[in-house]
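Hi L.,

You mentioned the student needs an example of a multi-chain input paired with its predicted structure. This one should do, with 337 residues in total across all chains.
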Amino acid sequence: MSSGNSLKAFLGSPTQVVITTHHKPDADALGSSLAMQAYLEKLGHSCQVITPSDYPSFLHWMPGHERVIDFTHPKKQEEALRLIRSADVIFCLDFSRTDRLYDMEPHLIESKARKVLIDHHLDKQDFADFEVYDVKAAATCELIFRIMQRENDLDLLDTEIGSCLYAGIMTDTGSFRHSNTTVEVHLIAAELIKRGVNTTRVHRLIYDNNTEERMHFLGHILRDKLKVLPGYATAYITVSSGELHRYHSQTGDTEGFVNYALSIQGVRMAVVMIDRGDMIKMSFRSVDGVNVNRFAREHFQGGGHQNAAGGKSIQTLEQTEQRLLSLLPGFSELLVR
Ligand code: 5GP
Ligand code: MN
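Structure written out for the whole complex:
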């Protein structure tokens, strides 16, 4: 394993690269993947981005989206497997544990390709041959910028790469408001603006892209499904598969629900539980010292960052809700002020 060395030296002569990221990619996952693809192609490598699932339509504007292979697409899986088998190098971006690849996981593990990990999530597994890993980085897109800078390749950073990187940094910092928004984050954003990124456009494409139906869905959730527990400084939301169906919910439609719960006065932890059919997918957000990474890891097979994590449950939605409620009295960080 090497870290801090030259990625270009590690890659060597032009090579066959597959770039992948976590299940249900967000803007940082997809933005870092597409930016890395564009950069590596400028260096002469052959690249293909393969995602373990689909991703929200509000990311379809990203340059390179049209070439992405979704592993779950029945007509594309053969091609994806062929590319994974023949790759010399596989880049793993914006995840640090292989279970985040879902059905793609065994294929990554079986592959003889050299692995590159570029990530900022806690609790990394050791599976990569080359790592750029920094849990203090606000976004994987920040790490891609730093790599290009370290390689003296910022002249290759064009507006298209810049827009992808800006999108990842903007979303993972909650539009530059979370505690991960460092001086360096702002300096990188400034560099991206200098290279032509239209920040207003990127923000609108991602956040002002709601369907009318999604707004009605959100209205229902906030009015009828939001539960606040002042004694535990916690707010949570459950979403049934019937509700997903009734509002014709598309991938990405439930993103951001958790932030409304966290925005309530006095709330220090917010949880959203969504019945996805095969499992209950959970999202956790917190403030200050409330460590939802640990909570998600210890109780819900998940993890992420201290103040933003995900997890899952194979119980029913009602049982998962009851389990959460039963755990709150023991989660002392919620009660300490
Ligand atoms: P979100 O709630 O937006 O899906 O995820 C919040 C953060 O936790 C993101 O950084 C995401 O990558 C990470 N995350 C989401 N689900 C999981 C999971 O099941 N396991 C781990 N280790 N991280 C997750
Ligand atoms: Mn990220």
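You could point out the following to them. The chain has a mean pLDDT of 97. Residues 28, 94, 120, 139-140, 172 surround manganese (II) ion (ligand 2) (CB under 6 Å).

Best wishes,
N.
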